[in-house]
Amino acid sequence: MNVSWTSDRPETTEADTVVLGLFEGEEPRADTGGRDGRGGVPHQLGELLASGEAQRSFKALALTHADGKRWLTVGLGPRKDFTPERARVAAALARERAREISARVLCWEVPAAGQGQAGDAGAAVAGALVEGTILADYSFDLHKSAKAGGQSADAKPKHLDGLVISGGGPIESAVADAAIVAAAVNAARDLQNRPGNDLTPTALADYARALGEEIDGLQVEVEGRAGIARLGMGAFAAVAQGSEQDPALIVLRYEGSPPTPAKGPLLGFVGKAVTFDSGGISLKPGPKMAEMKFDMSGGAAVVEAVAAIARLKLPVKLLAVVGATENLPDGRAVKPGDIVTAKNGKTIEINNTDAEGRLVLADCLCHAVSLGAERIVDLATLTGAVIIALGSTYAGIMSNDEELTEHLSAAGERTGEILWRLPLHPEYDELVAGKYADLDNAPEARKAGTIMGASFLANFVGETPWAHLDIAGSAWDLGRAYVGKGASGYGVRLLVELARSYGAE
């Protein structure tokens, strides 16, 4: 999709469909109902409003035709309730209606900022309109045959050809940046949606390498099974030993783009990328096991967030560590009761092989610390317990550092990838203590499952400021208008915004 910005009125653009947002109690423009020689809203829209067919309540849609264009109205509700997140939803709804009417190019008129709103409000809304449209335009057809996926001559187009954002003020860069980030989210969704026999750990590593060759300033290094063992990553290696597929330790580095110097601390992103999780010897139930291809969602988000940050040339220093492996049962697989040694020397009783993500993350966190990361954020589909606690609305955040938590929470509010903080406490540390080793990866007491995962991981970051994001409820089937069923790419926009916040300090 080609995304562009213009200061011209939307009716003068090449778009076949113009989208206007309507606030409650406000007219869309002062010239509604007539033309003034410079273009304007056609009288048909005024008639639509007068008849009640077009409404200003949030999510209401109406369509009319005038002067060779379609005019699509979207209710935005009260202005005081309007946020960038509502703009994303409105854009997604407009995109779906545009699909029904076979639109090729949409032009959104950015709703004018109201009195008392910050000067950058228009830019935030413009970016949100881009994100909502691009994310709603997504589909995954990689493995559909040409016959099954083909279209007849009169079929509705699957994707928009173009999106034009019309508005004044300093929004051009916001539009361009949002297009880059939204494309990265969709790329992460592609990775998530690929099945385990396609996206193996090696395939993910090759994908990351290709990004490193494509993007200036992005460096990628990969270690396989032997390298993981050489680095002393016994916990990660234990998870991988049950699969014939080689694991991959993927390290991505970005240190800013000259001439703008990088600012702030060296950020470390760590992602869990279990490309298929059967549960190992502690086998998962059969129903919905196919969804365990999504257990690499944290790693996908990290890879694509780093790629977007490099493309945006943000002035930050960044390293990312992604642990990619399968978790399968065979004669070599790790067994319940086995004891392994992590990179930092801690010993771990593996009492449930389906609690494998924390083993992979443990060594990856140690590696990020050893590479000098000064702020660490890990993303993982770690526990089903977080879905019970928070559903899909919030991802869980647990952290040992207030400043990092504040940065992440603020980034979540701006992107709509919102976080809810769960506590860490010394009493939880006691629960993850092992009987025969330093730690137990799956204590028998079924208490505070999400927090217990974080308490376990806290043993592998030392004093480094760190936050653990459990995205098991948000990584797929998020259910929002702009990302419904399937992979959501959750975390890409959040991490990019976090990096942007540090780069702006």
The mean pLDDT is: 94
Number of domains: 2
Bin the strand percentage: 15-25%
Low-confidence stretches: 30-38
User: What distance lies between the first and last C-alpha atoms, to the nearest angstrom?
Assistant: 33 Å
The counted number of beta strands is: 17
Gyration radius (Cα, Å) is 24 Å
- Overall form: elongated
SS field, number of helical segments: 15
**How are strands sequenced across the largest beta sheet?**
7-8-10-9-13-17-14-15
CATH H-level superfamily title of the largest domain:
Zn peptidases
Helical proportion, percent range: 25-40%
CATH-defined architecture of the largest domain: 3-Layer(aba) Sandwich
- Under CATH at level 1, the class of the largest domain stands as Alpha Beta
Describe the structure concisely for a colleague:
This protein has two domains: 2-112 and 121-138 and 160-170, Leucine Aminopeptidase, subunit E, domain 1 (3-Layer(aba) Sandwich); 196-503, 3-Layer(aba) Sandwich (Aminopeptidase). 34% of the residues lie in helices and 21% in strands.
Task: Tell me what the structure shows.
The two termini are about 35 Å apart. This protein has about 500 residues and is an alpha/beta fold. Helix content is about 35%, strand content about 20%. The strands form 3 sheets. The protein has an 8-stranded mixed beta sheet, sandwiched between helices. A 6-stranded mixed beta sheet has the order 1-6-5-2-4-3, with helices on both faces. Helix 3 (about 120-135) runs parallel beside helix 5, helix 5 runs antiparallel to helix 9 and helix 9 (about 295-310) crosses helix 15. The radius of gyration is 24 Å and the shape is elongated. Residues about 30-40 have low confidence and may be disordered. The protein contains 15 helices and 17 strands. It has helices spanning about 45-50, 85-100, 120-135, 145-150, 170-195, 200-215, 225-230, 235-240, 295-310, 355-370, 385-390, 400-415, 425-430, 450-455, 490-505; strands spanning about 1-5, 15-25, 60-65, 70-75, 105-110, 160-165, 220-225, 250-255, 265-275, 315-325, 340, 345-350, 375-380, 395-400, 420, 440, 465-470. A hairpin with a 2-residue loop joins strand 3 and strand 4. The protein has 2 domains: about 1-110 and about 120-140 and about 160-170, Leucine Aminopeptidase, subunit E, domain 1, CATH 3.40.220.10; about 195-505, 3-Layer(aba) Sandwich (Aminopeptidase), CATH 3.40.630.
